[in-house]
Amino acid sequence: MSGYSRIPLSVLDLAPIADGSSPAEAIRRSIELARVAEGAGYRRFWLAEHHFVSVASSSTATLIALIAAATQRIRVGSAAVQLGHHTPASVVEAFGTIDAVHPGRLDLGLGRSGQRRTEAIATVRTGGTVTRSEPERVVDGLLIPRAFPVETLLASPRIAAAAQALEFEGAAPQDFADAVADVLALLSGSYRVDDIALHAVPGEGADVDVWVFGSSKGQSAQVAGTEGLPFVANYHVSPATVLEAVEAYRAAFRPSGRLDRPYVVVSADVVVADNDAAARELASTYGHWVHSIRAGGGAAPYPDPASTPPLTTEQRAVVDDRIRTQFVGSPSAVADGLDTLAHATGADELVITSVTHDFEARKRSHQLLAAEWGISTPAA
Predict the structure, then answer these.
(1) Residue 109 in contact with residue 80, Cβ under 8 Å?
(2) What is the pTM of this model?
(3) pLDDT for 50-76, tens place per residue?
(4) If we measure between CA atoms, which residue out of 2, 37, 5, 7 comes closest to residue 349?
(5) At what angle do helices 60-70 and 23-40 cross, to 10 degrees?
(6) Torsion of CA 225, 226, 227, 229, to 10 degrees
(7) Spatial distance between the Cα atoms of 175 and 228, rounded to a whole number of angstroms
(8) How far is CA 293 from the centre of its chain?
């Protein structure tokens, strides 16, 4: 592995519910996977926030607390808390509560999906477009595909209904920059409303690292840079815009008490097995899963390759960018692909997500990659 970049690897988990399984089983599996990740030497174990779909990480802070209690060293956090669905005070109090029991191990990732979704739905309803159409290209060996046109997805009644259910009637999401500033103020003890000091208890003074997640060169990248926070760019969700997101963050970066230089983590979707053919079989229903999301139905129970027919040509076209930017294969093949991703983006760290119907294969995917990459478990 001497040719690899040797940057740290972390894990992003969605607590996916496999077809034929249950939310309770998905939660137990995420806890077990966190133990596996810790034993394999991964730096962090992050949980994604999703609602009204077949993943069990909707109550992210609760699951983070359970995983922190079940592990010893690995950092645990959110990827990311969607501030459009939570007030800064509720977020800081929740993470402050966990930090009180597991100090110095929490990563508070913040995202603007709630605000972005509200803005995009409004744009689509007025006949506007959200997606920019740019040609596919390869940059330093990394595939940058054409962007998926999200207009049809955003017009889905189900998407609108879910957004409505996550907000108080008549309320507008707080501007993301203001919300991030409030989180930082609550943690530092400088938060004020109408000149009245308010203190998050617990939360103020918590040893929590704040991160910003983003998929474009827009507000998330700008806020992460101007606040001097580390930034996570989503290649696995939006591969078409990862380079512009990273570039915008670095251009906006200002040194802070938290960071003196930009720190970039880039996400990737991987499936690793003993050989390429076995990995391709395990990953063969990934496109079906993504298609259920892009068709407006949300993430379905993760399909079993043994009972799922191949995608049709029309279905494949909808998810082609995500299939071709997933890293699937033997340990060396996937590690080579991740090394290309790291060099093309200049990442300081990679965070990988690996979803398979078979949980034992999912655990082994993480273990095989860790061994190939050469990460080692820190001393207890």
Answers:
(1) yes
(2) 0.93
(3) 999 999 999 999 999 999 999 999 999
(4) 7
(5) 50
(6) 10
(7) 18
(8) 15
